[in-house]
Amino acid sequence: MGSRVRALAEATPDTRDRYVDLLRVLSLGTVVLGHWLMAAVTADGVGNLLAVVPELQLLTWALQIMPVFFFVGGFSHALSYRSLRRRHPAGDGASPYAAFLRARLRRLLRPTMVFVLVWGAAALLVQLLGGGGGLTGVSLRLVTQPLWFIGIYLAMVAFTPPLLKLHERYGWSAFGALVAGAVLVDVLRFVLGVPFVEFLNFAFVWLAVHQLGFLRADGRLRLPSALAATGLGGAALLVAAGPYPLSMVGMPGEKVSNMAPPTLALLCHGLWLVGAVELLRGPGARLVARPRVWRGVVAANGVAMTAFLWHLTAMLGVYGALLAAGVTLPEPASAAWWAQTPLRIAAAALLTALLVAAFRGFEQPSPAPVRPGSGPLAALGITLCLFGVLGLSMVGFAGLLEGRTATLIAVPVSAPAAVATALAGWWLVERSGFAVRRDEG
C-alpha cells in the first residue's frame, strides 16, 4: 500500500487543490475523535460526556465540523459534474447524471453496504443465540448512527446537478434562497408551531453549506473573515435569544436539537466554520504542499470512509473488552476517567486500524469506466438508498427478531426494510449504466 500511496501522491497534478483534501481528512478525523471522547460508557449503558459536563458543550462550536465536510463535498461535486458535462455536452444524446451518481457513489456505497451486511449478520446471530442485552444491545442500536451522514451526503450528490445549474445562473442568490428557506422553516416551527415542517431543514441547512462549495469552486467565496464573523455572531445571538440549545451536536433528552433536524443556528455555525477554514487556506496549502504531509493525506483519504464507518464499532469493542475482563469503568468525567482517556482512544484507534485493514479493499476506486446512462433509474436508486440508509441510522440493529421500528419523519421503518431498500437502491444505481454498456459493446 505504501508504494501505491507514494505513486498516487507523486502523480498529483499541480492544479489540484490539495487543501480541500486536507480539510476532508481533518473534518472526518475530528468527528471520529469527538465520538470517542464524548462516549460516557458505564456498565449500565452509554451516555454523553457533554451531558455530564454541560460546560464542555461550548467546544462543539469548534469541534462540530461536519459542515466543513459538506462544504468540501460541494466543491468536489461541482468540479466532477462539470467535467462530465464537458465530455458529454447537451445534444450528444447522453445525460451525465447517471454517470455522475455512479462515479460519486461507487466508493461511498460499497464500504457502506459491506458495513451494513456484516453488522446485520452479526446482530441476527447474536439475537438468535439469546444475546442482545446490556452493552451489546446498546451497541446494536448505536453502531448505525453515523449512517445519517451517509444519507445526507447521498442527498447532496443527488441534488448537485439542479443546484449547480441554479448556482451558475443566480450565484449568491441561489445560496440566499436556501438560507431564506431555513429561516422560514424555523419561523413556522418555533413561532407558528407547524408540525413536521422542521424536517425540511435537513435539505435547506445542509444544501446551503454545500452550495458554499460551489461558490468556492468559482472563486467567489471572498471575505472569509466577514463570513466567519456573521456566522459566529448569528449563532451566538440565536442561542442567547432564541429557543436554540448551546450544543451544536444532539444531546440526550433535549426538546430542541440543533442537529436533528438542523436549525438556523446550525447553519450560522456552518458559515462560521467555512469562513474560519478559508482564513486558514494559505497556511494549510503550504503545509499540504510538503511531500510527506501530502502522502499522509493521500493515504488517509483512501480509507477515510471505511474508518468513519467502523470507528464506533472499535470504540464499543474496547469498552466491551474492558467489561468482559472484569475492569471497573470509572465514573465519566472523574479524575480516573480522564486519566484513562488517552489509553482508551489509543486502543480504539488501533482497533479501527485493524478494521480498516480488513475492509479497506471495498473503498478502493473501481476500474469500471464512467459512462452516461439512465438518469431516471439512477435517481430512483439514490432515493431508495437515501431512505434506506437514513432509516437504518435511526432504528439500528437491536430488536431484529422483535420487529423493532423507528419513525423516519412520519413513516415507521424496521431494520430489515431499511437494509432491503438501501440494497435495492444501490443495485439500481449500478444498473443505470448497463444499457449503455451493451450499446457500446
Automatic annotation (TrEMBL):
Residues forming the Acyltransferase domain are 18-356
What would be one Pfam family of this protein?
Acyl_transf_3
Write the record's keywords in alphabetical order, separated by commas: Acyltransferase, Membrane, Transferase, Transmembrane, Transmembrane helix
Show the GO MF annotations: acyltransferase activity
Q: Which residues cross the membrane?
A: 21-38, 58-79, 112-135, 147-164, 171-190, 196-214, 226-244, 264-281, 345-362, 377-401, 408-429
User: Superkingdom of this entry's organism?
Assistant: Bacteria
Q: What is this protein called?
A: Acyltransferase
Naturally occurring in which organism (per UniProt): Streptomyces spongiicola
Tell me the organism's taxonomic lineage.
Answer: Bacteria, Bacillati, Actinomycetota, Actinomycetes, Kitasatosporales
